[in-house]
Amino acid sequence: MGEHNFEQNPVILYGFVLLMNAVSYFLVKLIIKNEGNNSHFAKAIGNDIKGKLSMVFYILGIVFSFLHPTIGILLYAIVAFMWLIPDKSIEKCINFFS
Fold it and tell me: What is the reported pLDDT for 6?
């Protein structure tokens, strides 16, 4: 995107790649289905609000990039910063000192 000065098409393509990564993350649901809802892994994932919000923000970023690419980049950045916040459901399931 940097070589193209954040033009519309590269920003939209970047958003599509991010969206496909978010969609592939939902393959975790297949693992949980195989392991069971009471598995350690299912408890660690929890209700996965961040994963669902990521997909929504990526879709909105793609849509708004058609209007103005800067809005799309802003929405992609929000998702990146959102994932910097530690997830408490995973932390509860991991015992570092055992």
Answer: 73
pLDDT of residue 1: 57
H-helix segments, 26-94: 28-35, 40-45, 49-67, 69-82, 88-93
Q: Which of these, 83, 53, 84, 65, lies nearest to 16 by C-alpha position? A: 65
User: How many Å apart are CA 4 and CA 30, to the nearest integer?
Assistant: 38
Q: Average pLDDT of each block of 10 consecutive residues along the chain (98 residues)?
A: 75 92 81 82 80 92 94 94 82 61
Residue 58 contacts residue 18 (beta carbons within 8 Å): yes
The Cα 58–Cα 51 span in angstroms is: 11
> What are the phi and psi torsion angles at 46 (to 5°)?
65, -145
Longest dimension (CA), the chain: 52
Per 3-state DSSP, what percentage of the chain is helix, strand, and coil (rounded to 5)? 75, 0, 25
